[in-house]
Amino acid sequence: MRAKFDEQLALLNKELIAMGASCEEAIAVAAKALTTGDKEIAEKVPLIDSEIDQREREIESLCLKLLLQQQPVASDLRQISAALKMITDMERIGDQASDIAEIVGFLNGRSGAECAAIGDMARAVVRMMTDSVDAFVRKDVNLAQAVIEADDNVDELFRQVKSSLITLISSDPTEGEYALDLLMIAKYFERIGDHATNIGEWVVFSVTGIHKGESEL
């Protein structure tokens, strides 16, 4: 019985890795669409988002099967419940990458070249996404904590974006709409960082039984 359960847990890890990879791809493609101003690239993101949605449903079903058909011990319950929380954040990451791609379509071929910090934000949140899933699979609390701390860097980059866009509008008020679109894109990247942080916090919970601000379970 335990061997079967461990086999299904391994499958859960594999599916989470695949869902995380899809999230990374969605973010990276959205960022590439922005930096190139290419609407055709942007149109690929909703398709990836659909794959993420499908994986969420499949992983949710697998988690429920593990809970109902097996006899998980406390550490197993933490791992499964953390996975259920993580896929919700991953699904939101897919949605927000799709939102970024949609806004790129409104830029009429322009890129975010006037605001380099947006590209830095994109690279930072992709790394956070990669490391958060890796931390879950490896049960690496230190790596998960590094993801949580990396969100401060994303927040700082967001402040730099706002400052750059204020300067842009001050120098040329006709750029107001373009600047607002870039600000929205940066905000979505900032939210993606928040979701990756949430995943890191659930990794810590899955290993230690302690979630942010709570006592041990």
Write up this protein:
- α1 (2-36) runs antiparallel to α3 and α1 packs antiparallel against α5 (116-138).
- The protein has helices at 2-36, 39-42, 45-69, 74-104, 116-138, 141-171, 176-208.
- The radius of gyration is 19 Å and the shape is elongated.
- The chain contains seven helices and no strands.
- The protein has 217 residues and is mainly alpha-helical.
- 84% of the residues lie in helices and 0% in strands.
- The model has no long low-confidence stretch (mean pLDDT 91).
- The two termini are 25 Å apart.
Q: In terms of structural class, how would the helical and strand content be classed?
A: mainly alpha
**Helix percentage:** over 70%
Mean pLDDT: 91
Radius of gyration: 19 Å
User: Strand tally, please?
Assistant: 0
Order of helices and strands: HHHHHHH
Low-pLDDT segments, ≥5 res: none
- End-to-end C-alpha gap: 25 Å
Query: Shape, please?
Result: elongated
Beta content: under 5%
Helical element count?
7
Query: What characterizes the major β-sheet?
Result: none
